[in-house]
Amino acid sequence: MRQLGHISPSIEARIQGLSGTMGRVTHYDLAVIGTGSGNSIVDHRFAEKRVAILEDNTFGGTCLNVGCIPTKMFVYPADLARSARHAPALGVDLTYDGARWPQVRDRIFGRIDPIAARGRAYREGQPNVDVYDRHATFVDDHTLDTGTGAQITADQIVIGAGSRVVVAEIPGLDEVGFHTSDTVMRIDDLPRRMAIVGGGYVAAEFAHIFSALGTAVTQIQRGPVLLRHHDEDVSRKFTEIAQRQWDVRLCTTPTHVVRRNGTTVLTLSDGSEVETDVLLIATGRVSNADRLALENTGVATKNGRVRVDEFQRTTAPDVWALGDVSTEHQLKHVANHEARIVQHNLLHPDDLVASDHRFVPSAVFTSPQIASVGLTSQDAQERAIEHQAVTYDYADIAYGWAMESRPGDHFVKLVADPRGQRLLGAHIIGPQASVLLQSLVQGMSLGSSPAEMARGQYWPHPSLAEVVENALLELATE
Ligand SMILES: Cc1cc2nc3c(=O)[nH]c(=O)nc-3n(C[C@H](O)[C@H](O)[C@H](O)COP(=O)(O)OP(=O)(O)OC[C@H]3O[C@@H](n4cnc5c(N)ncnc54)[C@H](O)[C@@H]3O)c2cc1C
Fold first, then answer.
1. Would the CB of 323 count as within 6 Å of ligand 1?
2. Which one, 7, 231, 399, 422, has the greatest CB density within 10 A?
3. Same domain, 335 and 307
């Protein structure tokens, strides 16, 4: 029997049985490229459909394997480790005695890896589903080259192909060896020194993780602040706090990198050198739209991403897209939301629903946490939107006293219309920011005014949530 390569045994048998040659094309009702959020589309309601799932990497996609989930599983022990440093301010002496890195790592991947394997096995065991585990490309609007030697056709195709790491071009990089977010979580030992190139949220999270666990971190950022897309008060404050926690080099870039005496040495544009044991490049991600041979289709792209309308339809009939491959947000909850929209629209072609991107929250699990939704002050200024902004400090509420929150370090900033009747944005830096933000996301999504959010409900006293309540009450109302 001829081997078809990397293809699940059930489908290999089926193709061989059907055709006895490589030439035959199998037809499906639905084909899904990518097993991140795209994988969740295929539930019991598709039991009567023939489905192809195409995945060229680990089942489950970025979030499960190399993204949100493992990073946050590292952040939690890092938070514990860092808390020992803050405890003496409260009169409690804790010592941090170090991390058993292999145990930290293996606890995380010991849980994640089996989930990915089970996800794949589950799909391969479904009688109506075939899994192709090679890189898929389009032959035309309804035909895919599965990369396994077989072509397939499908009535409907969903592109959930995600995004990939972008590695900054630094002369010498390929010779010295480096890590990205795809690999750094699986290293063998906690390094003594780490240099992180990048100033975005991935860099901020890893700087927190490794520095809290005991690595001497140096973060190199081209611009004058870290997390520059955040509200200016938040990014300025975070930059200042980060500088207290690890070595931050601003307004500089690596000009080249070499190995010298067993050490990686980065030369920066300001003339300084950084010696490191591990080099982490965290300089962003780009949509995988350019790797799908979309030129063979009617699927258009915009700014490097697959172009979709509000129903997640691409410009080619019967081809849909969701998540990082098409959205500007690059967030798992957005990919999941869009997957639910695509799922509904596949099942109800005469009753399409639109995706809702009005109030998309994001959180950065660094130290301290940062969470944000809606317009920043800069956004409002750039768009000439009349607005007011208020901040309320954690240090000014009872729970902030309990935490000995340093004045000015942790706060809620709200951006609202001048009459105080509509919240336009909310930005929080401080402990539990990701949790605190949710009441504001809810209020904005449900159309509540700041006054309704503050006074239309109880806020448990003396919880941290009171900082949100007080910020809402600060807004000047007409
Ligand atoms: C370090 C890190 C931390 C993150 N933390 C958070 C967080 O805290 N919160 C949050 O909301 N988001 C976070 N994200 C972002 C989040 O992981 C992504 O937004 C989300 O996973 C995107 O889902 P997706 O389904 O669009 O794509 P993916 O999950 O990337 O799935 C796409 C899949 O398609 C496969 N594929 C691509 N092209 C092909 C092809 N041609 N043929 C076959 N298969 C293909 C890929 O291998 C991949 O498995 C993080 C990302 C990273 C890297």
1. yes
2. 231
3. yes
- Cα(289) to centroid of ligand 1, in Å? 13
Q: Indicate which residue's Cα is closest to atom 53 of ligand 1.
A: 67
Q: Specify the pTM.
A: 0.95
| Residue 401 amino acid letter | W
Q: What is the pLDDT averaged over residues 182-204?
A: 98
Residue ranges of alpha helices (H) inside 192-273 are 201-213, 232-245
Q: Which of 33, 54, 64, 68 to mutate to test the pocket of ligand 1 (most atoms within 8 A of CB)?
A: 68
For residue 460, whether the previous peptide bond is cis, meaning omega lies within 30 degrees of 0, is no
Distance (Å, whole) CA 82 – CA 95: 10
Q: Quick check: 18 pLDDT over 90?
A: no
pLDDT bucket at 477, cuts 50 / 70 / 90: confident
pLDDT at 417 over 50: yes
Is 331 in the same domain as 377? Answer: no
Domain count for the chain: 3
CB atoms within 10 A of CB 271: 8
Of ligand 1's listed atoms, the one at least distance from the Cα of 322 is 26
Query: For residues 465 and 451, what is the distance between their CA atoms, to the nearest angstrom?
Result: 16
The boundaries of the domain holding residue 312 are: 9-63+105-162+286-347
Last residue of a domain, one of 298, 316, 347: 347
239 token code pair: 């930059």
- Give the ligand 1 atom nearest the CA of 332: 11
Q: Say yes or no: 231 and 297 in one domain.
A: no
Q: Which atom of ligand 1 is nearest to the CA of 39?
A: 25
Same domain (yes/no): 264, 290:
no
